[in-house]
Records
---
Amino acid sequence: MKTKKIPSSQITPEEVYLSRRKFIKNLAIISAGSMLAASCNGSATPSTATTPNSINSVKDELGDPLNSYQDITGYTNYYEFAEDKSSPSRLAQGLKTFPWSLKVDGLVKNPKTYFVDDLKKLYPPEERIYRLRCVEAWSMVIPWLGFPLNKLLKDIEPTSDAKFVHFETLMDPAQYPGQGNRSYPWPYTEGLRLDEAMHDLTILSTGLYGKDLTPQNGGPIRLVVPWKYGFKSIKAIVHIELVANQPTSFWMNLWPEAYGFYANVNPEVAHPGWSQSSELRIGETKRRKTLMFNGYTDQVAALYQGMDLTINF
Ligand SMILES: Nc1nc2c(c(=O)[nH]1)N[C@H]1C(S)=C(S)[C@@H](COP(=O)(O)O)O[C@H]1N2
Ligand SMILES: [Mo]
């Protein structure tokens, strides 16, 4: 994971994205309506319910403006496709994201396999505007659509032995050219402690900007854990397994001193190759100070009471 310069061609003037916002908002209302109609099994009555997936704001709770749709979908990290930021948006277009099944099993009372389309009906997507801070020291503000992972976990009922959650991305070298590179430990995997997975900020995302999640952003379904470095937010998940012991993950296997299990955003703990004290918000020119827990300290600090955050990074 190395830093790259952002081409200025990817920066969208505010007026353009504001008008696009209005347009997307209308789309969101239409798609929420059709989602409801579909779940009512053929009812032709138009819905008057308020939409759960409109774009609610142009800013996050700290007042930071959202990144443009173009930035978010054009500048991505997805090693299954490529190691650079711009080609995944092109290479991912052929990914077969429908139908997509997600298996949830391990130390649980009710193991289940879901189609993503059914998950969206079971747990209607809500909007979550989160900062995403990559370990490479760039960041974005993204309006995700998704649902708290804890809703799904409560339904499958972890047993008392379950202490961690393990996530796995699709393994399919025919669709993922990067998986031909045997120097990486494919498939991409990630893990959370059970209480981190149960935290209300932790979501499974199926959309952004009121639309379905694009394949390059991890469609049809990905994890988003906003207080941790971006690599924890694993894309294109096919398997979630409840386990007893702390699992290793893709980046941990490659370089544990740089990419720890917890990977909480922390401006005090440097990566072996660079400082984490500041970051470049995509679309800006002046660096920002990196915030402890990416600005979510009030919500998540209690999870780590008594833990030395300089060792458990
Ligand atoms: N399967 C998979 N998930 C992944 C990655 C990846 O290469 N493969 N990259 C990670 C990294 S390093 C980051 S910063 C975020 C980027 O998410 P975005 O491209 O939607 O901004 O996805 C994470 N999830
Ligand atoms: Mo990242």
Note: The CA atoms of residues 73 and 162 lie 35 Å apart.
---
Amino acid sequence: MPDKPVSRVLPYGKQHITEEDVAAVAAALRGDLLTQGPIVPAFEAAFAQYIGAQYGVAVANGTAALHLCTLALGCAGKKVLVTPLTFAASVNCVCYVGGIPDFVDIDPQTLLMDVGLARKKLEAAPTGTYAGIIPVDFAGNPVHIEAVRELADDFGLWIVEDACHAPGGFFADSGGARQRCGNGAFAELAIFSFHPVKHIAAGEGGMITTNDQALYKRLLALRNHGMTRDANTFALSPGDLAQGGWYYEIQELGYNYRLTDIHAALGLSQLSRAGAGLARRKQLAAQYDAAFAGTPVAPAPTSDGHAYHLYVIQVPGSADARKTLYDHLRTKGIFTQIHYIPVHLLPFYRGLGWQKGDCPHAETYYEHCLSIPLYPTLTDEEQSYVVNAILAAVNR
Ligand SMILES: *Cc1c(COP(=O)(O)O)cnc(C)c1O
């Protein structure tokens, strides 16, 4: 196909808003309750069903979801195993509650946290050093969370699966059964984001999924200041404070991390097309795989249950070659992105003692990675334009 410039800018990811989405939001605006109304629980139930988990707790964004997870599971004064190849929020959430992030390098084949390395760290530490582990389904490649569960059980750790990249992704467990990312079969809690670059856009928004009823109830309270109106759980007797229909208690410190019904309406409407969007992502990824096969461009790692939030190539040559390609593609209207600068090398984490060389695989990967356009409305023609621009530049 000729190198015909496309008229619009091609970002690495973007939302797909339909007239049905617009109508759903308009209907929410005409409803009685803009927040704490009926659409939030409807979205929670539908999302949990899509993921295959029993419960969903909708929150203001994915970062709030992570914060509530570390708050509920606890890690104050203890270490939590994290991956350097993620958005910083999956690590910041440990620091929010007084925990200490401990970066485990990636496996260069899968780009996911190296579970063998994690085990070595745990074996070398005195009992009680670690509280939990936060694996990330990077780019949409599902973590084999059953193996992480084994590790967690051996050392008494909780697991929060950061599945922001992988709604609809799955892996095959040791019995051959498909386990969807975030379904709660192996991890205590999982989290998702509805930022517009993610699979399901709500503007802002997040969700925690779980199969644990006690955690579910606690998270509902924590996202709403720690408030409870369930008389069965009241700590104070009616004679202590005059109680009536207005009465509530705050028994634990929480936050206002609620999602509005307006956002939930958009999320719910988007959710109805999640399967179609995922199918198109997979198709585009397969086309990229085919286009880059046998070229100097290394395609992204693949797997059956990959959810393809991102399509990340490895640019051959030096780190300068990657920058040259990034700048060149921008002149052609192709806005690629880097996922991610290794979190341990960001100044805040250097301040905690982390430095270059601590996670060599993530650091080498970072010097060559480039996330190229991947989203359901990317056309085949636009994709060919991207492929041709990359191959022309790399072969020059
Ligand atoms: C997007 C994202 C988050 C944070 O989600 P927000 O909704 O933007 O707060 C956390 N972890 C990962 C891996 C993400 O991609």
Note: The chain has a mean pLDDT of 96.
